[in-house]
Each structure stands twice: as structure tokens, then as C-alpha cells.
Amino acid sequence: MQTAIMIVANYPLYIRSVPTQGELKFHYTVHTSLDVVEEKISGVGKALADQRELYLGLLYPTEDYKVYGYMTNSKVKFVIVVDSSNTSLRDNEIRSMFRKLHNSFTDVMCNPFYNPGDPIQSKAFDSIVSTMMVQAF
Amino acid sequence: MDQGSAAGTGGTFISLSDTEQRCYSGLYALCQPDSSGKLAAGKVAELFRASQLPAETLHQVTEVCGAKRLGYFGCGQFYVALKLMAAAQAGLPVRLESVAGELPLPLFIGITNELEMRYPNHPSTNESQPHILGSLTGSAPRPPADRPVLRHPDTSTDKQEAWSPPRSPGISPPRSPSAYRSYPYGAQRNGTDTLLAYDGKVAGCPSVPQENSSPSHYSLKLQPEQPVITRVASVERLVERAEMDYSDDPWRITEEQHEYYTNQFRSLQPDLSALIMGTVAKNFFTKSKLPIPELSHIWELSDVDKDGALTFPEFCTAFHLIVARKNGYTLPETLPATLRPGFVEPGVVPAPPSEATEPLIVFDDNMMPGANQLEMGSVDLQMTSRPGVTSKQDTRDESRKPEFSPKRIPDPHEKPIQHVSTLKPDSPQELDANMKSRTRPRSYSSTSIDDAMKKVEEPPTPPPRPQKTHSRASSLDLNKLFQQSAQGAKSGWLPRPPALPPRPPATQIFSFLPGSEKSSQKAVQQANFADFSKFREEQESSVRGGLSTEDLAPPKLDSTLRHQGHAPQKPVRRKLHPESQSATPPSAAPYSAATLTKSTQRPPPKQKREIQMAIRKNRETNAVLTRLNSELQQQLKVVHRERVTLESQLELLRPVAST
């Protein structure tokens, strides 16, 4: 069962997948999902910025996997890819995962030694993400 | 040399570990045993004195180990004595029972050079490596030049767990010598050479000579004397001469270090309770020349409340981690308990202990047994301040992260009581962190990154209020005139420094008053008072607003001043009574007393200048007004004459019309 979490700011800042083999496929997935994200964004016309609008929901399902999107106010997109076989995941769980991701991402941003736009190398962030993935999937 | 692993005294069988064995045998050899195994009393006495234990304790040791009875120190007695001294240094009573458990190696100063010298003579086998390392770890922190023995025999007396670290480094270097790559110890036979070289380097370091009696772990006595400008150099030198003292927890901040960190903090931010912003801290820590990823990791560890700024405890933590890293310690994955901002020395019990127990119990459930962190925390660095028995508990503490508060794992309640005191300070901190994390989701109603940024920035200073234009309708001439005069006044105001004393405005208004027409209108006087009090309130509020609103004060004052200035000038609306003039100084006096916060010294000399300027301006306006007056009078005369001629013409014409 393959899952992946990716953080993209028009180029990947962070990609993590379990298991770690199919990363190339996930790269491809995230690139295609970016198009869908753009579609959703341009459609909504975001005047306000509450969390509901940050969460983009199921971007598109294929027969293999489902892709969920979330975009922060600074145009950083979080993408979660889960296997279609994993039907136990509900929308709220995905939302909470995104919320946690966002929290950790903000913590990384707070670090003055992190330049926005760098790939994320923080070990704390890594550990949080892995824990989250292990719990959820 | 008797390598017997047991020392019998009164039938008690005391076992020595390998490292202890090596160390003791070295020391034994040092004391020049004669053929029968008795040790030279002089050497023994010297050694005992070098342990820096009080004489009474030494007597006790001698007595207990049996040498007193025998009259000499044999091998067994010597070993027992060494163990007892170790126990005494650990703060335990000098009894045989104390030596039954595991103890650190006893520390002796002044003897070490000889010890080190002897080691190359030993057969170079694998055994000798732990031997060397063991003795090195025991002796290494004590080069003769500037080595503290036990920095805190007092503070650590009530914490038995402080003694596990001294033991574990003795064990762990063979296991993971790479962890200490920049350490001289990591080397093998070269360990002694490099150590000696290191000693030489340390001894050769210029500066205040380090007395042995002054426990200066990181040679910090030097640092506060350095000028702040050489902060970079001082950080480097601090790091260069700092060595790890295995006899104490390297993750604990000592008094001297704390003092040093305080000074450094003050150099960045004078207020100890304020925050250091992220960029400031970044520049400062970059000077330590550590690679950026490591600094990033250190930041993550030390910024507990994740606000992008460092409080004073966080700063100490970060600094301490940097120093530790510079000395070759690998950074822990999670923050050691002693470095947490809420950590307090066990001797200092937090003020409301009863309250603290409550949250202690509640937040125990919050602790996450993060498995991966557990391993990393406990295996890589056995530097925790808890003994092996409770290390699991400790790493559980360390591995807990505030963000995981929703997960509640029941605490196995295996904590020994002695941890309670150290956990207590943790829990309020945890409480804070938890609170902060829980408030974090609420903040997502606003932007996320911006939110983070906002936490870093202070609210920007409000822009200065726009100059009040003339709100009163009045004759244009007057307006223009007064605009000019007020402009002159304003330019006089602008060069004034931001700390604005309230009195000069009062006096300026006061000086404006004579220029105005005078008539007795009480209403006007009261109105003036009303305005004045409003002005005072504004001034108060603006001054109370603090530094950021100081910019506000001069423009506001200016505008209200002009407002006031117009008031007396408008002959129709406002006519100021001479009494009001006398009333304003008293009102100005309490006004200035009430509101003057910063510029207490400046008003008197400034006032004079202001008054003189005001007088000059008033004279100018006086001149202008008199000119205006005369012109108007002229016009009045002309008009009057015209009227007279018209009337006479009318008179002339009327008899003509009537007829």
C-alpha cells in the first residue's frame, strides 16, 4: 500500500512516501494534481481565507489512488496521496492530517535558519510526518 | 600490581568494574607501592588531598577502609578508600554500603599528568584502550591548568541520578567513538598525546589564570571581561577552551555559563524578560560558525514555544547546545530535560509546589512514547540526567512534543519520587506549550505564514496622525496668516526629539494667549480648559502608549497646539481670559507631572529655548496683527468717508426729489 505526503511550492519542497520505492510515480502524481489545484483555486475566487478553503478536498480519484489537496495562504500546497484500497480514511482524518502538517510546516517556517523555498530538511519535521503516516496508514 | 577485583575489608566483598579497576590500579601504581604492597603514605596523602574532599571526610575514609587500623594503605584498603572517596564526592556518606552500588570514578586534580604519562607504558592491547579511555574520562577533565574538579558537589548531592553520565561516557566511547570525532578522546593511543597537546593549548591560552579553586567550566570568568565587540572571538575562544566535564551532566547549564549567557542575552536585548527576534538570533548564532542545518536543528530544539523568537531560557538552551556541539557532542534529537526552559535546579523548588503537582498528574498522560525518539535519545547519548533504570521514562519526557497533546498515553507511573521535583518545572512549561499548541489551530482563521510572521514582528508603529487642517470656518485671510505662523511654529516643533515634554506646549499656548484679544468670557475659559484636558488626556494616552507612539506625540501635540493656537486667534469664537493664562500654568504643572515619563531632565533647558522661540514668534504675529489692524482701520476709515459722502449726496438729492 503506497501513500505519500508532498509539499509543493510549484516545485517539490518535501516528498515522503511509504514505502519509499515509488517516489517517481508520486512526483508525477503531484505534478498532475497541481493542475487540479489551480483549477479549484481559480474557480473559487478566494476572498476570504478560512481553513475550510484551505482544504481542497479530494482532487481526483483514479483507480489506484486518491489525491487530496490543501493550499496554504502563501500558495504552498500540501498533497496527500493514498491508495484507493485504503477506504478507512475519512475526510475528517485527512483534514486533521493536513492541519498537523500545516502546524509543523509553520514551525519549520519559524526557524530563522530556514529560508523559504529551501527543501525542508528538518529532522523534527521528518519525524512528525513519519509518525503521522504510520498512524494513519 | 594487584589486579584483584575484590577488596576485602571486614569481610565485605566489593566489586570493581573494569574501568574502576584500571583507574585504581593506575592510581595505586602512582602511589609508589613498595615491595610488600604498602603504599607510600606521602603519595597517598597527596592523592587524598587532590580529591578536594574535606579533611574530616578523608579521615573517615581512612578509618572505614581499614588503613587506620592497619596503619598503612595496602592494595585492598587503597581500593576501598578510592571507592569511598568517589562516594564522598558523589555526596554519599562515607560508609561501606555506599560503595556497594555503582559509582563514578573519583576525581583527583594535579595528579593526572603523571597518570597520563604512565599510560603509554602499559601494554597496548584492546584492553588498554578502554583502560586509557576510562582513565582519560576520569582524568581528562582535569588538566592541571584550569580544571574544575566537581563543579557542583552541592547541587548534585541530592540527585543521585546525576552520576550516571560520568559512568556512561566511560562505556560509550568504545561503542561510538565516532560520536566524539572532534574530541581528543576519540583517538586511541594518541588519546594521551592529543590530550596533552590539548592541555598545552589550553594552558597556553592567554587570559586570566584559572585558579583551580574557581570552578569555571567553560572558562567563563574570562568572557564577561571581554568587550562585547569581540563577541565573535569570545564565542570561538569560549568554545575552544571548553572541555566536557564528564563528572557532571553536559546538558546542564552551570552558574558561570548561565551568567555568561545572561550577559550575551543582554548584549542583544537589554530586557531579560523580552524576546530576541529570530533574525537577530540567527545573525548571532551564525557567528559560531556551525553549519546552518545544525543551527537549524538547534533552533528547533530550543524554541520550545515555536514563536520564532527566543526567550531568555530558550536562548540559554540554544547557546548551550551550540557550545556543546562545538565541543563535539552530537546534538540530541530531543531536548534534554535539563535544558528545558522550565527546568529548575532541584535545590530551587518552584514556588507553588502544590499547584505544580496537579498539572503534573494531568500532563503525565500527555507523554508520548515516541519509539524512534526513544532509541535515539537513549542510545546515542547517554547523557541524560537519570539513571538507566528510569531512562525510559526520561526519554519519554524528552520525546513528548506539545503538538501531540491530543494523544493521551497513560503513564505507567513508574517514576521514582526523586523525579517529581524535576518534572514539576517541566509540566508548567508543558502546560504553556500545550496551551500554545492548542491555540494554534484557532489562529488559522487568519493566514498561516503571516500568522507566524506576526508572532515575530511587533505591531508596526501606527502612522503619525495627519496634520489637522483647519476645521473652523473663518476668514481666509486669518486662516492663511495663521497657517503661516503655525507653519513657523511647526518647524520649530519638528527638530524636537521624540520625547516630548508636555510643558512647552502649555507654555506655548500660554504665550499665544497674550497675543489674543482679551475679554472676560468664562465659557471660553472653560472651553479652553476642556480642550486642554482633552489634550492632556491625548498626551497621556500617547505617552502611555510607549515608545512606538512617541512619533504620535509630536504630530498630535502639533495639531492640537495649532488647534489651540487658532482658538485664541479667532476673535469671534475664542477670547481668552487673562485668568485662563494664570490657570494654565497650574494645570500644566500637574499635567506635566502626570504625563512626563521620559524627558524629565530636558524640559527645563528646553523650556527656556522654547519660550524664547515662542516669544519671538509671538512678537512676529503681534507685528503682523498690528499691521492687519492698521490696514483694517484704514479700510474702515475709507469706508466711513465714503458713507459720509454718500449720505451727504443723498441729502442734497432729497430736497430736489421732494420738490
Describe, in plain words, how this protein is organized in 3D.
The complex is a heterodimer of chains A (137) and B (659). Chain A has 137 residues and is α+β, with helices and mostly antiparallel strands. In chain A, 44% of the residues lie in helices and 25% in strands. Chain A has a five-stranded antiparallel β-sheet with strand order 2-1-5-4-3, with helices on both faces. In chain A, a hairpin with a 3-residue loop joins strand 3 and strand 4. Chain A starts with a strand and ends with a helix. About 5% of the residues of chain A have low confidence. With 659 residues, chain B is mainly α. Helices cover 56% and strands 2% of the residues of chain B. Chain B has 25 helices and four strands. Chain B is rod-shaped. Classes of the chains: A alpha+beta (137), B mainly alpha (659). At the A-B interface, helix 3 and helix 4 of A face helix 12, helix 13, helix 18 and helix 19 of B.
Write the layout of secondary structure elements.
The complex is a heterodimer of chains A (about 140) and B (about 650).
Chain A lengths: L2 E6 L3 E7 L4 H22 L6 H4 E7 L3 E7 L5 E7 L7 H20 L12 H14 L1
Chain B lengths: L5 E4 L2 E4 L2 H13 L10 H10 L4 H11 L1 H4 L4 H16 L21 H7 L9 H12 L24 H12 L14 H15 L26 H11 L13 H14 L7 E2 H9 L5 H11 L6 E2 L1 H15 L26 H12 L6 H10 L10 H9 L20 H23 L6 H8 L19 H18 L9 H13 L6 H23 L8 H17 L8 H18 L7 H56 L1
Protein name (chain A): Trafficking protein particle complex subunit 2-like protein
Main location (chain A): cytoplasm
Subcellular location (chain A): Cytoplasm, Perinuclear region
List keywords for this structure.
heterodimer, A: 137 residues, alpha+beta, five-stranded antiparallel sheet, 4 helices, 25% strand, B: 659 residues, mainly alpha, two-stranded antiparallel sheet, two-stranded antiparallel ribbon, 25 helices, 4 strands, 56% helix
